[in-house]
Amino acid sequence: MLVAGAGVTGRSVLAALAPLGVRPTLCDDDPAALQRHADAGIATTSPSAAARHVGDYALVVTSPGFRPTAPVLVAAAEAGVPIWGDVELAWRLDSCGRYGPARRWLVVTGTNGKTTTTSMLHAMLTTAGLNARLCGNIGNPLLDALAEPPTCWPWNCPVSSCTGRRRCDLRPASC
Question: Which key words tag this protein in UniProt (predicted)?
Answer without folding.
Answer: ATP-binding, Ligase, Nucleotide-binding
